[in-house]
């Protein structure tokens, strides 16, 4: 399968695919970007029945606890309370770890007093809530009703009807300070949780299927790219399990495995980073093979190898909690993104078809992941894509990369098949060469044996009658002449098979040329004691670009064979005509004909037309075939034993251009 024939290799299809993918990403953005949260007004969140989800960030104030030592009493002190700043809908407050205090006021005007407050950040290390209203005294202790068993970042709280409730929240995060907070009634929460678990079930089921498929492809084909991609999928999925809080939910807080991971990585953020960097490393190894940088971008190999060597160092930094690890991880991720972008588009430019699949995979992946990145820098409000964009984009990525791997596997198989065909062709060529040498040896050895015997007779001085001596010397001369002719024909075939300059072809009015050739050949045929019938019905406008003397040689060879195998007084017919922008010529005899098993190989230089014939060397038809094929024509024969033979050849002709006789 030639890469130029694959649909993805067509520039128009590739460009159309890029536009469709970008358009699809834009449509999804428009569908999910508008917030679906219940509207709020003023500085308080007023709760009503059946109004869905309230986005707390719209109506909350935040305060940075730089040392992480302040208590609720400290926060409520007038000097500190006035330092709170409105969040104004922001959910991201910095890229470094720390402690934040959050304050919001809620007035419950619905008949429901049991609500759910949820923090959409599963790698949060600590989350405490305190309640204060005018009718209750502050104890300074967390006042959480109960933690939701189904979701570890959600909490049930009691909100008295009609009483303003000030809620203080203390969050501790060891990574980026992202705190999207939602408030909803229990029915809305359970409905949302159900939809999320359906989404997670579909996503992780698809992920496991893809990982198993890639691993099986590696086992059966032993192509390391499949193994790297399978490990990439698994590591990325584990990092997303941590980010979505599912690892904590599936294992449970009492899990020994979870305790072991936390002991190694200190916190959930560390676990997430470790597996995310691991997935980038395996992705790097995978892309190195898919993009074939050593062929299409050798200068980028230095950066690729440098990044590849630094990958285990970054992982070690996460294990031992090196100072500035977060900065190292961000730098590594940035270098990976730059290398991926530059190398992919460069290899596409250089003609790597597989790299086009990589481009098509990165568009939906980055397009879906971009909201998460923008949300991290507070450039986009919290929505479905900011939280689950990586999963949505990775589905399209897995599909595209699996196609790229299939393409790469197909190319590998084709290369193997081509190599096998080349080996088979070489074996056939070797066999043909051996057959040719055997025939050459036979054709030369026989006359040489006669010449050798004759020379021995002369050396020994054996007396020969004058008349017999003349015949004897003539026989020796004929044998030497045969050998010389045979060598000359072999040399001609060698020269004719070499590439020649087609610009040296002359444009010939074929009707006039073939009529002149037939007249000459007819005289030769009649002088040999044979009859000749000539018929020319060539379009007078037909112009053929050819070496006229070489095509004349073809005609002479065909006529010579016709005369050689015709009985005395037999008929030789010469016919030329036009058909479908081509000119055709036939030479027909009434000789003994050719056996069917010989008809298919008579143009092979290793086979004689008549193997039992003592005249001719069997190379004339091979020479004719080389000449006709050089002129972009074809030559063939038809015959039945006992009814003669008919040899044909045809050449392309131009009837639209006036003949230019030379």
Report what the structure shows:
The chain is built from 18 helices and 18 strands. With 662 residues, the chain is an alpha+beta fold. The protein folds into 3 domains: 3-33 and 191-420, Up-down Bundle (Rhopdopsin 7-helix transmembrane proteins), CATH 1.20.1070; 45-186, Sandwich (Immunoglobulin-like), CATH 2.60.40; 504-652, Histidine kinase-like ATPase, C-terminal domain (Heat Shock Protein 90, 2-Layer Sandwich), CATH 3.30.565. Strands 1, 3, 4, 5, 7 and 10 form a 6-stranded mixed sheet that branches. The protein has a 5-stranded antiparallel sheet with strand order 2-11-6-9-8. Strands 13-15-16-18-17 form a 5-stranded mixed sheet. Strand 17 and strand 18 form a beta hairpin. Helix 11 runs antiparallel to helix 12 (353-376) and helix 13 (384-460) packs antiparallel against helix 14 (466-497). The model is unreliable at 1-5, 139-144 and 609-617 (pLDDT under 50).
State the helical fraction.
40-55%
Mean pLDDT: 80
What would you say the CATH architecture of the largest domain is?
Up-down Bundle
Give me the oligomer status: single chain
Would you tell me which CATH topology of the largest domain applies? Rhopdopsin 7-helix transmembrane proteins
Q: Shape from CA axes? A: elongated
What fraction strand?
15-25%
The total strand number stands at: 18
Number of helices: 18
Q: Which class best fits the helix and strand makeup?
A: alpha+beta
Pfam families: 7TMR-DISM_7TM, 7TMR-DISMED2, HATPase_c, HisKA
InterPro entries: 7TMR_DISM_rcpt_extracell_dom1 (IPR011623), 7TMR_DISM_rcpt_extracell_dom2 (IPR011622), BphY/WalK/GraS-like (IPR050351), HATPase_C_sf (IPR036890), HATPase_dom (IPR003594), His_kinase_dom (IPR005467), HisK_dim/P_dom (IPR003661), HisK_dim/P_sf (IPR036097)
Domain Histidine kinase: 439-655
Subcellular location: Membrane
């Amino acid at each position: 399968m030639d890469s130029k024939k694959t649909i993805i290799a067509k520039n128009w299809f590739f460009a159309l695919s890029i536009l469709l993918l970008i358009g699809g990403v834009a449509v999804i953005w428009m569908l999910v970007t508008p917030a679906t949260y219940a509207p709020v007004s003023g500085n308080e969140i007023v709760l009503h029945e059946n109004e869905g989800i309230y986005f707390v960030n719209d109506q909350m104030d935040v305060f940075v606890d730089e040392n992480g030592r302040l208590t609720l009493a400290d926060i409520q002190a007038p000097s500190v309370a006035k330092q709170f700043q409105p969040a104004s809908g922001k959910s991201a407050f910095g890229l470094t770890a720390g402690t934040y205090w959050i304050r919001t006021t809620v007035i419950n005007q619905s008949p429901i007093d049991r609500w759910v407050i949820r923090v959409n950040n599963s790698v949060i290390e600590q989350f405490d809530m305190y309640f204060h209203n005018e009718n209750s005294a502050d104890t300074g202790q967390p006042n959480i009703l109960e933690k939701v068993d189904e979701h570890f970042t959600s909490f049930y709280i009691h909100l008295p009807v009609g009483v303003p409730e000030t809620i203080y929240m203390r969050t501790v995060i060891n990574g980026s300070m992202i705190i999207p907070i939602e408030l909803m009634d229990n029915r809305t929460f359970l409905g949302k949780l159900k939809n999320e678990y359906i989404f997670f079930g579909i996503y992780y089921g698809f992920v496991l299927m893809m990982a198993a498929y890639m691993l099986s492809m590696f086992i059966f084909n032993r192509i390391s790219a499949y193994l790297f991609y399978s490990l990439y999928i698994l590591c990325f999925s584990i990092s997303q399990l941590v980010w979505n809080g599912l690892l904590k939910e599936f294992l449970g807080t009492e899990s020994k495995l979870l305790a072991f991971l936390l002991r190694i990585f200190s916190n959930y953020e560390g676990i997430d980073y470790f597996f995310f960097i691991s997935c980038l490393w395996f992705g790097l190894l995978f892309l190195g093979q898919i993009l074939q940088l050593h062929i299409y971008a050798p200068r980028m190999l230095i950066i690729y190898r440098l990044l590849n060597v630094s990958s285990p160092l970054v992982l070690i930094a996460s294990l031992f909690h090196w100072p500035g690890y977060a900065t190292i991880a961000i730098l590594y991720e940035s270098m990976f993104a730059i290398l991926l972008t530059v190398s992919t588009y460069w290899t596409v430019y250089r003609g790597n078809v597989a790299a086009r699949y990589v481009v098509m995979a990165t568009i939906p992946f980055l397009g879906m992941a971009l909201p998460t990145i923008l949300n991290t820098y507070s450039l986009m409000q919290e929505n479905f894509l900011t939280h689950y964009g990586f999963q949505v984009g990775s589905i399209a990525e897995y599909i595209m990369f699996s196609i790229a791997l299939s393409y790469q596997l197909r190319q590998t198989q084709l290369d193997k098949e081509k190599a096998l065909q080349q080996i088979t062709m070489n074996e056939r060529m070797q066999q043909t060469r051996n057959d040719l040498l055997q025939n050459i040896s036979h054709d030369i050895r026989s006359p040489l044996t006669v010449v050798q015997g004759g020379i021995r007779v002369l050396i020994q001085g054996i007396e020969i009658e004058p008349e017999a001596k003349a015949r004897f010397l003539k026989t020796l001369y004929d044998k030497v002449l045969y050998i010389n002719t045979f060598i000359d024909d072999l040399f001609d075939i060698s020269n004719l098979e070499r590439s020649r300059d087609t610009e040296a072809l002359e444009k010939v009015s074929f009707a006039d040329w073939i009529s002149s050739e037939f007249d000459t050949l007819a005289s030769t045929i009649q002088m040999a004691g044979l009859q000749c019938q000539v018929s020319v019905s060539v379009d007078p406008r037909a112009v053929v670009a050819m070496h006229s003397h070489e095509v004349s040689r073809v005609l002479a060879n065909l006529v010579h064979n016709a005369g050689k195998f015709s009985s005395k007084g037999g008929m030789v017919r010469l016919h030329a005509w036009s058909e479908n922008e081509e000119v055709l010529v036939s030479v027909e005899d009434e000789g003994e004909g050719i056996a069917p098993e010989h008809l298919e190989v008579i143009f092979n230089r290793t086979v004689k037309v008549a193997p039992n014939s003592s005249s001719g060397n069997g190379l004339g038809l091979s020479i004719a075939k080389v000449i006709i094929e050089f002129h972009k024509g074809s030559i063939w024969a038809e015959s039945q034993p006992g009814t003669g033979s008919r040899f044909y050849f045809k050449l392309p002709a131009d009837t639209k251009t006036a003949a230019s006789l030379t």
